[in-house]
């Protein structure tokens, strides 16, 4: 089922570990529609400022000469505002912008615009008594309140942005005062600053009020956005927090409305099947139901448990899974390095338990890889393996491109695909294909490297077809048992008939190794206490 473009999620992970963790709160916790709308709002604000900037700039030149000198305007600041806003308009129109960009982008824009608008305070000494109007409602204060009412950011982010943006009014106030005082006599300079210090408290009061209003507005706007994201429901489940997203869809933390049971829901967007005929759409539904039902029938404790599935009113597929507490093997190796052989054998045996049942049921996984194997807490047990993604939706693609058999195509992850899969011989895939992928995964766990080194997907696939693997013991500083080397190389045979043929056969070989190289519960628990002391489920 794995969508290779979906990134991994971290703490409090979804059961699809190929999704990146976007954080428990903040902009990335909002539903995708709100995120997209936020980028549109930011672009709309920037567009409005471009229009206003052009009008003000034109008006300056259209005014009679005797009136221009009374207009507090810095042409360079106006041009900077227009250029900056045009850049924001252009960026906000880009597709698939990462959610982590938005808070930074929005805050930088708020502060930059505030700094530009605050240049009006550079001129207060030259306006005489007319300069007093600047201390009434400074443009920066209007700007931050307006911005907070339109752009959904966390209140504390808006508070910081508003404080900095309006703070430029005070900065330019002193810069303008110092510049004017430098050209005056001491007596006149003192008089200027006496008037300035009379105006300054009013300026600070307006800044404080505007910053407070921006914070309160942000709480309301962001609260509504969060409520909208939380209130979305799928079937009997309420989506409470987005855990990750990618090319195929999104994974949400969810809660059953009656049972209050936590779960993970993956939504597969309906636009993945847009543009297909009615018969093809019906084919999708039938295939999806058949594969979900088959996977849900699996009872191995090392297979991800599926609670429910269905189709939303907007024609998006979804399925509900158990929410796991742990991390996928890809992330573990990248964080902690290769594992000791005894632990690898312990993990592989549990994987074999899951794969043996699925193979007996006629299900070939077809995408065994570190990101699809989860190491987690399960009750009091640790180092507990869950195998994910049994081909539920990996072939949900436009029918004009491919049908069920997909002869001559590759579906999976190149670094962990079997030679027959790399050659596009989908009709030849079988249990031995999964065994090959298990060998690739074992290689990764022991060495922290893939079996073959390649610069691209096609080169990697070609290596699986033609190149002989180097024994893992030659690619790591750890001392590996010769017997484990032999087992892995047997899994990596090019010819499926020459490989270890079944998960049960592989499990038997691993059981013999485990008797010699045991991984005790105490060792496993010690690792978890040291590296993941708190539950994240």
Structure description:
- This protein is of the alpha+beta class.
- It folds into 2 domains: 194 residues, no CATH class; 295 residues, Transferase(Phosphotransferase), domain 1, CATH 1.10.510.
- The chain contains 16 helices and 9 strands.
- Strands 1-2-3-4-6-5 form a 6-stranded antiparallel β-sheet. Strands 7-8-9 form a 3-stranded antiparallel β-sheet.
- Helix 5 packs antiparallel against helix 6 and helix 12 crosses helix 14.
- It is elongated and about 95 Å long.
- 43% of the residues are buried.
- The N terminus is likely disordered.
How many domains would you count in the coordinates? 2
Helix content: 40-55%
Distance linking N and C termini:
23 Å
- Tell me the radius of gyration: 31 Å
Name of the CATH superfamily of the largest domain: Transferase(Phosphotransferase) domain 1
CATH architecture of the largest domain: Orthogonal Bundle
Unreliable spans are 1-25, 130-135, 392-408
Strand proportion, as a percent range, falls in 5-15%
Category from helices, strands and their pairing: alpha+beta
Order of helices and strands: HHHHHHHEEEEHEEEHHEEHHHHHH
What is the helix tally?
A: 16
CATH class category label of the largest domain: Mainly Alpha
**How is the CATH topology of the largest domain named?**
Transferase(Phosphotransferase), domain 1
């Amino acid at each position: 089922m794995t969508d290779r473009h979906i990134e991994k999620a971290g703490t409090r992970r979804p059961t699809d570990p190929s999704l990146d963790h976007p954080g428990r709160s903040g902009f990335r916790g909002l539903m995708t529609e709100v995120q997209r709308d936020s980028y549109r709002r930011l672009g709309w604000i920037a567009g409005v400022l471009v229009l206003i900037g052009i009008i003000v700039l034109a008006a300056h030149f259209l005014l009679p000469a005797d009136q221009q000198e009374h207009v507090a305007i810095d042409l360079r600041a106006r041009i900077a505002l227009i250029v900056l806003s045009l850049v924001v308009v252009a960026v906000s129109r880009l597709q698939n912008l990462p959610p982590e960009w938005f808070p930074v982008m929005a805050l930088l824009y708020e502060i930059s615009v505030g700094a530009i608008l605050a240049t009006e305070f550079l001129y207060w000494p030259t306006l005489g008594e007319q300069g007093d109007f600047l201390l009434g409602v400074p443009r920066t204060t209007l700007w931050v309140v307006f911005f907070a009412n339109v752009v959904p950011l966390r209140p504390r982010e808006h508070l910081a942005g508003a404080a900095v943006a309006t703070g430029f009014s005070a900065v330019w106030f002193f810069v303008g005062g110092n510049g004017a005082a430098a050209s005056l006599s001491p007596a006149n300079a003192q008089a200027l600053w006496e008037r300035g210090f009379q105006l300054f408290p009013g300026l600070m009061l307006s800044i404080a009020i505007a910053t407070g209003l921006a914070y309160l507005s942000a709480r309301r706007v962001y609260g509504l956005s969060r409520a909208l994201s939380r209130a979305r429901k799928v079937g009997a489940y309420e989506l409470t927090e987005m855990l990750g997203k990618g090319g195929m869809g999104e994974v949400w933390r969810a809660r059953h409305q009656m049972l209050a049971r936590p779960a993970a829901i993956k939504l597969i967007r309906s636009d993945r099947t847009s543009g297909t005929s009615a018969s093809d759409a019906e084919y999708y539904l039938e295939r999806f139901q058949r594969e979900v039902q088959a996977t849900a029938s699996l009872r191995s404790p090392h297979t991800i448990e599926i609670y429910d599935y269905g189709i939303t009113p907007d024609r998006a597929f979804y399925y509900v899974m158990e929410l796991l507490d742990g991390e996928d093997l890809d992330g573990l190796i990248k964080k902690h390095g290769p594992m000791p052989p005894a632990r690898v054998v312990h993990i592989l045996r549990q994987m074999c338990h899951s794969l043996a049942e699925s193979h007996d049921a006629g299900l070939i996984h077809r995408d065994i890889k570190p990101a699809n194997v989860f190491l987690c807490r399960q009750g009091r047990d640790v180092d507990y393996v869950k195998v994910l993604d049994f081909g539920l939706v990996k072939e949900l693609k436009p029918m004009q491109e491919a049908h069920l058999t997909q002869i001559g195509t590759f579906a999976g992850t190149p670094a962990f695909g079997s030679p027959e899969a790399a050659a596009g011989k989908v009709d030849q895939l079988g249990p031995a294909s999964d065994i090959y992928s298990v060998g690739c995964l074992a290689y990764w766990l022991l060495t922290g490297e893939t079996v073959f080194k390649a610069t691209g997907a096609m080169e990697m696939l070609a290596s699986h077809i033609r190149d002989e693997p180097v024994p893992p013991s030659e690619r790591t500083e750890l001392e590996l048992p010769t017997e484990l080397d032999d087992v892995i190389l047997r899994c990596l045979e090019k010819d499926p008939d020459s490989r270890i043929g079944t998960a049960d056969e592989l499990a038997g070989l691993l059981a013999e190794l485990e008797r010699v190289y045991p991984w005790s519960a105490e060792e496993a628990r010690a690792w978890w206490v040291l590296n993941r002391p708190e539950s994240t489920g």
